[in-house]
Amino acid sequence: GFARAGRAARLLEAGVTAVAVSCHxxxxxxxxxxxxxxxxxxxxxxxxxxxxxxxxxxxxPVDLEARVVVMETNRHQLSDIVDLxxxxxxxxxxxxxVQPIARDLAxxxxxxxxxxxxxxxxxEALDHAAARGLAWSLDNVPPCQLPDRPDxxxxxxxVPPAPQQAPTIPALGD
Length: 174
Description:
This protein is an alpha/beta fold and 174 residues long. 37% of the residues lie in helices and 14% in strands.
């Protein structure tokens, strides 16, 4: 990862012009629960800090984006994650709903929340992003799920899964 000293600088010096980094939590406990690894939050933060520092020194412009997958585990802290992204000087944040790509569709909502459960947290997080001057996008949330926020609709993106990743229906007997 980018937490290793010099890795970000070497990649940017080699000509990389855009980097997207996953950022799914605003605290150690949530990151450890998602990453299944203690200390993951500190490592992620250090990597993001080093990436920003390397981008500032790069010989060319570098687009940096923090990607946040909206999950049941982190839905309560989406605004805090956006605040962290802003504090780390990342210029762009992308919130994304994952489409069901699994045989265990019955377990989908154990991991991923319903749209209804995250309408308010998503709107609040996007308001935080705008207030902090971040560019933002929201993937796979249709406008009808944010009916009171037509101001957000132009930046919503529906990203279809690749054909090999299309949702599957469990076979009878599974």
